[in-house]
C-alpha cells in the first residue's frame, strides 16, 4: 500500500508525495535532516532524520530518478512541533529508528546541580516526595518542549528570582501590617508571576493558614467583649439564683481553652507552611531571607 507524505519547507507545505518522491527529494538535497515531514493521515510533524532509513547510505548513494516528482505546494499558517516518531511504511520500506535526543553541556550541568541539591537537602529539609517529583516533572517538561541549551538555565533563573522577590515582599508586608487582620489581605496582593506552580500552591496554603489564625483571633476578641458586657453579668446573676453560680465561669473557661487550642493549631500551620516555602525556595535556587527576630512569619 502506497503511503503519502507532506513536506514543510520554505514556509510552504508540499504534498502529497509518495514514498519514492520523498526519497528523490532527499537525494536531490531538497529535504534536509531538519526538514519537517508528516505522513498522510497523521496530523503530527517529524524531523526527516527521525524517519527511519530515509537518510541511510543506500538512499543517499543512489542516483535520483530523472522524473521530477509532482508536488503541489500548499500554504500553511501554523507549523506544529514534531513529537516522538511513529512506525512508518514506505516504498521501498524504510527501517524505523529510534528518535535522537541531545542534551547540551549547560543543560547537563544544570541537571547535575539540581540532583546534587536534592541529595544534600533531602534528609533535613524536603518534607514531601511530591516536591521532588514536581521539579523532576518540570525538568522533563522543559526537555520535551524542545528547550535549547540556555532555555533550561533561564527558566531556573526566572523561578529563583521570582521566589526571592515574593519572599522579600511577604516579609515586608507582614512587618508593615497594622494588625493581624491585614496580613493575609496583603499577602493576596503579592504578584506570583514567574514562580513555579509548586511554589504558587504552597504560598496559597500559607495564606490559608494565616486566614485560619486570624479567624480564631477575631472570634477570641468578640468572645472577650461579650464576656465583659453587662448581659454576661446579668446571665451569671440569674444562674446564681437558679443554683448554678459557677456555670457561666466554667463556660467561659471552656470556650477560652477551645479558642487557645484552635489558635495553637493555626499558628503551627503557619510555621509549617512557611517552612514549606523555604524548602521550595532552596530547591529552586532562591536566596533565603535572614531569620526574623519576632515570632511572626
Summary of the model, kept short:
The chain has 297 residues and is of the alpha+beta class. It is 54% helix and 7% strand.
Please, could you describe this protein's structure?
The protein has 297 residues and is of the alpha+beta class. It folds into 2 domains: 4-74, no CATH class; 106-283, no CATH class. The chain is built from 9 helices and 5 strands. It has helices spanning 19-27, 57-61, 105-121, 129-144, 149-176, 182-187, 197-227, 230-241, 247-283, and strands spanning 4-9, 12-18, 36-39, 46-47, 73-74. It has a 5-stranded antiparallel beta sheet with strand order 4-3-1-2-5. The longest helix is centred in the C-terminal third of the chain and has 37 residues, at 247-283. It is elongated, with a radius of gyration of 33 Å. 19% of the residues are buried. Residues 66-82, 84-92 and 241-246 have low confidence and may be disordered.
Beta percentage is 5-15%
Question: By helix and strand content, what is the structural category?
Answer: alpha+beta
Q: What fraction, in percent, of the residue positions are helical?
A: 40-55%
- Count of DSSP-assigned helices: 9
The biggest beta sheet is recorded as: 5 strands, antiparallel
Radius of gyration: 33 Å
Give the overall silhouette. elongated
Low-confidence stretches: 66-82, 84-92, 241-246
What is the string of SSEs from the N terminus onward? Answer: EEHEEHEHHHHHHH
Mean pLDDT: 72
Describe the strand arrangement of the main beta sheet, using strand numbers.
Answer: 4-3-1-2-5
Separation of the first and last Cα atoms:
70 Å
Number of domains: 2
Amino acid at each position: 500500500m502506497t503511503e503519502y507524505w507532506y513536506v514543510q519547507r520554505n514556509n510552504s507545505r508540499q504534498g502529497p508525495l509518495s514514498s519514492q518522491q520523498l526519497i528523490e527529494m532527499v537525494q536531490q538535497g531538497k529535504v534536509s535532516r531538519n526538514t519537517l515531514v508528516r505522513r498522510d493521515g497523521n496530523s503530527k510533524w517529524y524531523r526527516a532524520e527521525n524517519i527511519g532509513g530515509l537518510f541511510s547510505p543506500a538512499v543517499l548513494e543512489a542516483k535520483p530518478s530523472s522524473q521530477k516528482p509532482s508536488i503541489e505546494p500548499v500554504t500553511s499558517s501554523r507549523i506544529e512541533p514534531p513529537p516522538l516518531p511513529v512506525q512508518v511504511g514506505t516504498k521501498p520500506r524504510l527501517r524505523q529508528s529510534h528518535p535522537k535526543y541531545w542534551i547540551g553541556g549547560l543543560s547537563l550541568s544544570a541537571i547535575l546541580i539540581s540532583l546534587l541539591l536534592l541529595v544534600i537537602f533531602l534528609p533535613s529539609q524536603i518534607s514531601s516526595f511530591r516536591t521532588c517529583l514536581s521539579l523532576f516533572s518540570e525538568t522533563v517538561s522543559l526537555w520535551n518542549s524542545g528547550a535549547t541549551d540556555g532555555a533550561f538555565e533561564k527558566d531556573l533563573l526566572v523561578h529563583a528570582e521570582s521566589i526571592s522577590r515574593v519572599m522579600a515582599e511577604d516579609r515586608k508586608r507582614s512587618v508593615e501590617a497594622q494588625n493581624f487582620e491585614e496580613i493575609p489581605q496583603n499577602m493576596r496582593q503579592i504578584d506570583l508571576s514567574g514562580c513555579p506552580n509548586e511554589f504558587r500552591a504552597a504560598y496559597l496554603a500559607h495564606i490559608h493558614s494565616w486566614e485560619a489564625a486570624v479567624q480564631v483571633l477575631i472570634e477570641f476578641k468578640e468572645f472577650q467583649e461579650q464576656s465583659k458586657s453587662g448581659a454576661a453579668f446579668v446571665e451569671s446573676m440569674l444562674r446564681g439564683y437558679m443554683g448554678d453560680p459557677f456555670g457561666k465561669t466554667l463556660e467561659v473557661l471552656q470556650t477560652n481553652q477551645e479558642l487557645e487550642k484552635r489558635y495553637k493549631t493555626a499558628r503551627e500551620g503557619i510555621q509549617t507552611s512557611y517552612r514549606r516555602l523555604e524548602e521550595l525556595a532552596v530547591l529552586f535556587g532562591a536566596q533565603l531571607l535572614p531569620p526574623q527576630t519576632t515570632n511572626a512569619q
